[in-house]
Amino acid sequence: MNENPQRFQASKHTMWIDNVRNLSFEDQLRATAAVDLNELSMTPLDFDRNLAKGLSVRDMKVMAADSGVSLPILDPIASWAPHWRSGISDAAWMEFLGYSADDFFRIAEQLSVSTVTVIGTFRPDLVSIPEIAESFALLADRALSYGLHCVLEFIPLWGIGNLASAWQILQIANRPNTGLALDFWHYVRGGRDDTLLRSIPGSKISYVQVTDAEASLPSGRSLFDDCLFHRLPPGQGGLPVKELLDILCEIRAIDRMGPEVFSATLDALSAEGIAQALREPYWQALANSGIMGRSSTSSGSTSFQ
Questions:
Q1: Residue 87 CB partners (closer than 8 Å, separation 6+)
Q2: What residues does 74 pair with on adjacent strands?
Q3: SS3 251
Q4: Are 161 and 155 in contact (CB under 8 A)?
Q5: pLDDT value at position 302?
Q6: What is the C-alpha to C-alpha distance for residues 62 and 57, in angstroms, rounded to an integer?
Q7: Residues with Cβ < 8 Å from 75, sequence gap 6 or more?
Q8: Confidence band of 9 (pLDDT split at 50, 70, 90)
Q9: Domains and CATH numbers, the chain
Q10: What average pLDDT score do residues 118-140 get?
């Protein structure tokens, strides 16, 4: 029984690309539509890989439109920050994170996205909050010149590790085109602070990444591996998914949301398998907190012929 009779409307539902990171672009779109989501995020690396496979920018846009899916988010940029390479221990990650600001904004312009995600990959305590905020403000100013909304994501693996740090940076930078990303895994593993979350205007939570995991980090598992390979669909782990969604409803921070399940299990599945794994858990989690809003494909009749 739904314990929250009040109803809330969310209109933008995003398939964060890491749910479908091992699929072709065509299958990423198919999975997105089958989960009944109306957006797919894009990374600069996935964009370039699609080009290398022979897809043009126009092809990507047309294929997405034909699937009833938009491509409004480019995620992430890391090279904006001082000492941004210092937290990247594996050189292989530079292929994913090493895009310059020039290349990042070129891709954003080609894709006609409206929103970009910003992460800080420097080591903790290496850069002061005021220094980070100054660099973030400069990046936000550049994003604004392209008409882009600039979303800061905190990640406990690196130097902007929790909600408090990210909110402080956002306040110091004080730019009109900025907001925060709230990923449930990052929020809980980085140090949950519901009092702070309730104090932040809902309009400053630009998007919500709904995920689950074991309640605490298992012994012998690194934070890095837990983040990237062991997440679970909403409701299948021990994170306070309903409590967090209820708080987000209270502060009206539910305009854009979607599942974010980095998972070795999902990596091994087809588009159909991923859709089956995510669809019901995601929509049931939202329904449990009184959140409505589905894309135009709400019949769930997407075919995998």
A1: 121, 122, 123, 124, 157, 158, 159
A2: 42, 116
A3: coil
A4: yes
A5: 39
A6: 9
A7: 16, 17, 41, 42, 43, 116, 117
A8: confident
A9: 11-292 (3.20.20.150)
A10: 97
What number is the average pLDDT over the span 159-179? Answer: 98
SS3 3: coil
pTM to 2 decimals? 0.94
Is residue 151 a contact partner of residue 207, using CB atoms and an 8 Å limit? Answer: yes
Q: Give dist(CA 212, CA 100) in Å, integer.
A: 32
Q: Is the peptide bond before 218 cis (omega within 30 degrees of 0)?
A: no
**Are 226 and 263 spatial neighbours (Cβ–Cβ below 8 Å)?**
no
Q: What is the full DSSP assignment across 50-109?
A: HHHTT--HHHHHHHHHHTT-B--EEEEE-TTSTTGGGG---GGGHHHH---HHHHHHHHH
Centre a 10 Å sphere on the Cβ of residue 65 and count the other Cβ atoms it contains.
12
pLDDT tens readout for residues 64-74: 999 999 999 99
Two structure tokens written together for 57? 């920018």
Q: Is residue 20 a contact partner of residue 300, using CB atoms and an 8 Å limit?
A: no
